[in-house]
Amino acid sequence: MELRETGKPGAAAVLLWPDDGLDAAVFAPVVRALEKSCRVLVPGFAPEEPPAARVAAVENALLSRYDGRIWGAYGLRGGGSAILSLLSRGTVRVRTCVVEGAVDVPAQGLREFSGTLFHWKGSRDKGAGKSWEALHKAFPALRSLTLRKLKAGQNVVSIRPDIMAKRLLKAFGSAGIVRVCTRVPHSASRVWRLLNRRPAGKAIGRLRTMQPLRRTDEDRTQIIEGAAKWIPLWSHMTRVEPCGEYGAACVDQVEISAGKLTPVVMRIAEIYLKAVQKSRNRQMRKE
Predict the structure, then answer these.
(1) Which residues have CB under 8 Å from 229's CB, separation 6+?
(2) Alpha helices in 13-160 (DSSP H)
(3) What does the alpha-carbon distance between residue 262 and residue 247 come to, in Å, rounded to a whole number?
(4) CA–CA distance from 16 to each of 35, 167, 172 (Å)?
(5) 63 and 219 in contact (C-beta within 8 Å)?
(6) Is the four-CA dihedral 190, 196, 197, 201 of positive or negative sign?
(7) pTM (2 d.p.)
(8) The sheet that has 69-76: what strands, in order across it?
(9) pLDDT, tens digit, for every residue of 186-234?
(10) What is the rounded distance in angstroms from the CA atom of residue 138 to the CA atom of residue 33?
(11) In what order do the strands lie in the sheet with 248-257?
């Protein structure tokens, strides 16, 4: 499996998984349209790879390159079934997922998925209606995605790529990722212990509905999410990674969604995180 990555560096990552029978040339204009504002991920497989192996390969790639956290995903027919299978595993977090046409609901259901799920109506697939019923039963919060310019019997890939891209972006919403990494001359385990002893910064403390999503000592990772007055989403991951024989890298990665203000908030967040890491690392070197 090869996971092709294109688009804006540092932008929110979006996984596109077209159907096996879809010509790559047909889907390419959609990718180019989304590249202007997203980090677009498109998997490529060998013909002999079975479906389960494909899902596992994409899962491993997302865990290693994106810490198992991407902003959006779109799957067409067989690609949609594969994305639903990926979501059912519970190891990869996708904020918003859009599937189109006839898809298969995983046998284990979607209990592990906590994001937003859309089913795109207007497909020519005969099983699309049954897919909606099965998906709604497995995920009661399922939403419908429609397009006024999509005529009855038309398939999404048959419309203009820019229209499709705009509709997907509207469903995904705007987001950006800020990543700041610095090195500390301590072991990773010691840095992790020192971080746990320190309270959250003032800016983090102002987040409303802040909640820890995950905190594990095995991979030295903590994820918290919250919202502020002008920021609907602030998803903050802190991770300590071994770096050399006696050093460690402290990584702060924030996923931000603030509508039209997202670019401005990203820049402010980058300045803030750099200042926090500089102060925090200076104190750690004294201990």
Answers:
(1) none
(2) 24-34, 51-66, 78-89, 128-138
(3) 34
(4) 11, 14, 12
(5) no
(6) positive
(7) 0.75
(8) 2-7, 39-44, 13-17, 69-76, 93-100, 116-120, 143-145
(9) 888 888 888 876 655 555 555 555 555 567 777 788 888 777 777 888 8
(10) 32
(11) 176-184, 248-257, 233-242, 221-227, 208-216
